[in-house]
Amino acid sequence: MVGRRSRARAAAARIGGPDSGVNRAMDSIAGAALEELLALLAEARQRTLLLIASVSEADLRLQHDPIMSPIIWDLGHIAHFEELWLVRNLDGPVRFGEMPGKYNPFEYPRRTRGTLDYPSLAECLRTMAEIRDRAIGRLQRVGERRGKPLLENWYVVQMVLQHEYQHGETILQTLQLKRGSPYAAPRQYRTPPAQLSIPWGSMVRFPGGRVLIGTTDRTVAYDNERPCHEVELAPFWIDAAPVRNGEFLEFLLDGGYRRRELWSQEG
């Protein structure tokens, strides 16, 4: 996206002048970028609905674990978060950062969400579709606006897209904890075999020093990932590969959480 904008600006500069089609070129690029993002929003919604396609409405309404929401809450929250940022707060002053009512995670923490009154699944899906239609209409009318933090590079659309992806992960976590018959995932990804140049279970040492962490990106990074900055790290050892389930089980059975010699003062 950035590369296309840079090429368009360079081409416009060579042609010259404010009436040389610069604005038309930039509008065309912004429109193409929006269409790409709308396609990603549609793909994210398809993924969300695929996750719950085989789940009964009773299971969608049930709070399977006190640390997780009923899945019907996640669906409503996805929809109303989208309405908040792509309809209400899109191009005017931001009136509030969370939607009022039952889908506000601060008003209703997870442990309380199993007691709330929810619409039927059919009503919830209609609301999700209706809000999406309104959001698309608003985005197409408002357009990208440079100098507006929410609209520049379609930042707010990227934020809403990531939010639905995030809740897709949360829904899948809930389904792994569901009561009753196990969740049958609609598809699976087979990971390729690991290829390590050193034996599995080996560790590598970081010698310490100043490193760059964070990012200056404002399109897909969260605010707590910015800005890019330097930090000083002390030397440390780290596993060369992620810990496998069997290795973690061995750690648990060996009393790893109870053995003080394995832990620093900070934990």
Can you walk through the features of this model?
- By secondary structure, the protein is mainly alpha-helical.
- It is built from seven helices and four strands; from the N terminus they run H-H-H-H-H-H-E-E-E-E-H.
- It is globular, with a radius of gyration of 24 Å.
- Mean pLDDT is about 85; it is low at about 1-30.
SSE layout and pairing:
Elements lengths: L1 H14 L6 H31 L4 H5 L9 H18 L32 H22 L12 H22 L26 E4 L2 E5 L15 E5 L2 E4 L5 H9 L14
Helix pairs in contact: 1-2, 2-6, 4-5, 4-6
Determine the N-to-C terminus distance.
43 Å
Kindly provide the radius of gyration, computed on alpha-carbon positions and rounded to a whole number of angstroms. Answer: 24 Å
What percent of residues are in strands? Answer: 5-15%
Q: Please work out how many helical segments DSSP would assign.
A: 7
For the secondary structure, the number of strands is: 4
How would you concisely characterize the structure shown here?
By secondary structure, the protein is mainly alpha-helical. The chain has 7 helices and 4 strands, in the order H-H-H-H-H-H-E-E-E-E-H. The protein has helices at 2-15, 22-52, 57-61, 71-88, 121-142, 155-176, 245-253, and strands at residues 203-206, 209-213, 229-233, 236-239.
